[in-house]
Design brief:
The protein is of the alpha/beta class and 229 residues long. The chain has a single domain (2-225), classed as 3-Layer(aba) Sandwich (Rossmann fold). The protein is built from 10 helices and 6 strands, in the order βαβααβαβαααβαβαα. It has a 6-stranded parallel sheet with strand order 2-1-3-4-5-6, with helices on both faces. Strand 5 (166-171), helix 8 (180-189) and strand 6 (193-198) form a beta-alpha-beta unit. Helix 3 crosses helix 4, helix 4 (81-89) packs across helix 7 (142-156) and helix 5 (110-122) crosses helix 6 (126-137). The longest helix has 16 residues, at 53-68. It starts with a strand and ends with a helix.
Length: 229
C-alpha cells in the first residue's frame, strides 16, 4: 500500500480543469495527485439539471473510497463547492489533512462585482464582461442552485466537527465568495485550522491570478509536506 494520495475536488458547475495548475504544481513536487469530475458536471446545462447534492456527495465519497483502498493516508484539497464536499469527507480516519480554497459560507462580494463590471466598461475589457454575462445568462436551473444551497447550509453545521489539520485559503477579491467565509470556517474549526487571506485574486484563482496562484500553490505544498505535530 502506498503512502499518501492527494485528492482534488472542483467547484459547482466546474470541472477538474479549474485545478489543473495546482495539480501540475503538486505533481512536479512528486506527490500522487488525483482529480474527479463530479456527477452532473462537464456535460452542460442539460446534464447539470439532472443532478443534485446527493449525487455530488456520492461522487466525492466514491472518489475517496477508491484511493483509501490504495493509500495509507488521504489529503483532501477542495475548491469552492469542492471544499464543502471535502469537509464532509474529513470525518474519515484516513484523512490526514484538509485544504479549503475559496470555499463558500457567504455569497457574492458586491463591491468587487460592481468594480469589475464598471472597470470592464470603462476599459473595454471584453473578457471580464463576458465572464459576468455568462454567469447571468448561462444559468443553472433554479432547482440545482437550491440543491447547492442545501449542501452549503448542511455543511456549515459540520465545520466544528473537523479535527484534522486544515489550511483555509481565501482571496479577498473573490467575486463569488465573500472573504469572511474563510474567517467563519477558521473560527469553527478553531485550533486545527490555519487561515491565509490574500489581497487581490479572484474566485477562479488558479486560472486567472497568475502571480497569486503561484504563492497559493507554494503555501498549499508547504502545508501538505510539513510533518504533523
Amino acid at each position: 500500500m502506498k503512502d499518501t494520495a492527494y485528492l482534488l475536488l472542483h467547484g459547482f458547475g466546474g470541472s477538474p480543469e479549474e485545478l489543473n495548475y495546482l495539480k501540475n504544481y503538486l505533481e512536479s513536487k512528486g506527490l500522487d495527485v488525483y482529480s474527479i469530475l463530479l456527477s452532473g458536471h462537464g456535460g452542460g446545462k442539460t446534464e447539470m439539471s439532472k443532478s443534485k447534492n446527493s449525487d455530488w456527495i456520492k461522487s466525492a465519497e466514491d472518489f475517496y473510497d477508491k484511493y483509501q483502498k490504495e493509500y495509507h493516508k488521504i489529503c483532501l484539497i477542495g475548491f469552492s463547492m469542492g471544499g464543502l464536499l471535502s469537509t464532509r469527507l474529513a470525518v474519515h480516519d484516513k484523512v490526514d489533512k484538509l485544504v479549503l480554497v475559496n470555499t463558500p459560507v457567504y455569497f457574492w462580494n458586491l463591491k468587487v462585482i460592481a468594480s469589475d463590471i464598471f472597470g470592464g466598461i470603462l476599459h473595454r475589457n471584453r473578457k471580464a464582461l463576458l465572464e459576468y454575462k455568462k454567469s447571468i445568462f448561462d444559468t443553472t436551473p433554479i432547482a440545482v442552485y437550491l440543491s447547492f444551497l442545501a449542501l452549503l447550509f448542511q455543511t456549515k453545521k459540520l465545520y466544528h466537527l473537523v479535527k484534522k489539520p486544515t489550511l483555509v485559503l481565501q482571496c479577498k477579491r473573490d467575486e463569488a465568495v465573500y472573504w469572511k467565509s474563510a474567517e467563519f470556517i477558521k473560527h469553527e474549526i478553531n485550533l486545527q485550522a490555519k487561515l491565509n487571506i490574500y489581497p487581490g485574486g479572484c474566485h477562479q484563482v488558479f486560472n486567472y491570478a497568475s502571480i497569486l496562484r503561484d504563492q497559493m500553490c507554494e503555501d498549499i505544498y508547504t502545508f501538505l509536506s510539513k510533518p504533523k505535530i
